[in-house]
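User: tokens in, sequence out, please.
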């Protein structure tokens, strides 16, 4: 059994590798080749927490996996992470646990890569300006993902908390300097998205984070944050007026996210508004962007298939490079 830390994972696996793994996962999911049961959410009322168990099996890579991710807001006061996560990779051949990975980093990487893959498929090839709304735990990987798939010259970042936003931008200017983009802080969401070709919103918002009327023709939007019926980031105007609206998993998306559930309930959209899953686009079953003026939108709720595929690809590379700590019960 191999233990893999964030640093070890980073040493063998890039965001570009993760975008490739996300594309593979999109296809196996939409082709019905992955067994992804509903996740189990356990309430831990005593500590106002919740622990989620996300299992799945992908026959093509002969591998199953389980991510255990908790949401314990009270941890912040204890100096502990509020959403700790651990990933188990289980061999499809022997059923033995083959690896244990830092699930917090895996989540950031694969969630960035999922939006990155959608951006790679849907954004204009000549996209040069990016916008990022939200500067929490997922934000750095989202930013790196958009920089990985397009040659952006500028990215404007909006944070509700200006001080936190400044710290984030300062850190990103150093950590992502290799991409050569000018990363700066915007005072408002409107300022961030003005002229943006790619917009990613990754927040815990319960109401839209930007005004859809201000989106430039030809832009591509990723909505990453909302995963409950009460959470909403996407402006309803943009859902109605976008040319193409894609999701990662149609069934999960219409049941889990307020980005879709709220406008569905209001009767502003119907399920026919969803053009399809990115996996269907990758298999040529539905059409993507048709011209440079279309506005495309991608909504992800996240699925175990992305964790398992990414973790397996990381494990393969770690074994090849002899990276990680081997542990055994014997
Ligand atoms: N789609 C997926 O697969 C996936 C995976 C992981 C996390 N998530 C979700 O993404 C969201 C963000 O995750 P995180 O770890 O970065 O959270 P976080 O708590 O670390 O950060 C949340 C960020 O949202 C900002 N925010 C909240 N309301 C806002 C508003 N109205 N306008 C602008 N900014 C606002 C906060 O200021 C903060 O920067 C969470 O809801 C999380 O559950 C989705």
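Assistant: Sequence out:
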């Amino acid at each position: 059994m191999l233990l893999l830390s964030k640093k070890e994972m980073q040493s063998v696996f890039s965001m570009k590798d993760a975008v490739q793994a996300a594309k593979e996962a999109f296809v196996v999911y939409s082709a019905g080749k992955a067994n992804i049961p509903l996740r189990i959410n356990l309430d831990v009322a005593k500590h106002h927490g919740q622990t989620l168990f996300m299992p799945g099996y992908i026959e093509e890579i002969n591998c199953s996996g389980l991510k255990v991710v908790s949401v314990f807001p009270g941890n912040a006061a204890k100096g502990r992470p509020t959403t700790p996560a651990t990933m188990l990779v289980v061999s499809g051949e022997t059923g033995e646990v083959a690896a244990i990975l830092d699930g917090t980093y895996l989540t950031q990487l694969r969630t960035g890569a999922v939006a990155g893959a959608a951006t790679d498929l849907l954004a204009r090839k000549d996209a040069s300006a990016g916008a990022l709304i939200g500067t929490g735990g997922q934000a750095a990987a989202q930013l790196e993902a958009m920089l990985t798939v397009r040659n952006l010259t500028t990215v404007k970042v909006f944070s509700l908390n200006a001080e936190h936003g400044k710290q984030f931008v300062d850190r990103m200017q150093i950590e992502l300097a290799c991409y050569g983009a000018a990363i700066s802080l915007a005072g408002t969401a409107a300022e961030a998205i003005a002229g943006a070709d790619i917009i990613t919103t990754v927040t815990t918002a319960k109401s839209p984070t930007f005004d859809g009327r201000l989106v430039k023709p030809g832009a591509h939007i990723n909505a990453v944050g909302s995963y409950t019926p009460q959470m909403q980031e996407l402006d309803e105007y943009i859902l109605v007026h976008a040319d193409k609206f894609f999701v990662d998993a149609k069934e999960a998306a219409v049941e889990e996210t307020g980005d879709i559930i709220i406008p569905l309930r209001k009767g502003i959209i119907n399920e026919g508004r969803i053009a399809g899953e990115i996996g269907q686009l990758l298999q040529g079953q539905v059409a993507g962007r048709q011209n440079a003026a279309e506005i495309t939108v991608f909504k992800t709720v996240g699925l175990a298939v992305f964790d398992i595929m990414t973790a397996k690809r990381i494990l393969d590379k770690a074994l090849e490079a002899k990276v990680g700590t081997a542990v055994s019960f014997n």
